[in-house]
Design goal:
Number of strands: 9
Bound molecules: fe (iii) ion
Order of helices and strands: HHEEEEEEEEE
Mean pLDDT: 96
Distance between the termini: 20 Å
Helix content: 10-25%
Largest sheet: 6 strands, antiparallel
Low-confidence stretches: none
Strand content: 25-35%
Strand order of the largest sheet: 3-4-8-7-6-5
Structural class: mainly beta
Amino acid sequence: MIEKVNKSEEEWKEQLPEASFRILREGGTEAPYSGKYWDEKAEGIYYCGACHLELFDSTTKYDSGTGWPSFTALIRPELAELKTDSSHNMIRTEVNCARCGSHLGHVFPDGPNPTGMRFCINSLSLEFERGTSK
Ligand code: FE
């Protein structure tokens, strides 16, 4: 079980840069190829940009050609909560941080082996730390 972080939107607004707030707390999407991590190839861990929960290991990152950081798996499945998102006339699966509920991106069933999943995540939802691969 992951202990929840509960902050008001006012508190998040104070803590986060405006561009990150728009994605993490309002479910926005950054423009493709605009983020700082889509082409990041270093080894390390990607954390939630709001509450610093560890989410993705660089060993599962791959170039999906979409312009967003893409991963085949979470470090552990319970680190995120998945929910159906029917906005923009599409049925997609939204990926939210399991600890703070912040929006991270979406997951699609068209990824490579070994999972066949593509976690398509906003750079603005993540914080990368090099060399801490577990
Ligand atoms: Fe979080």
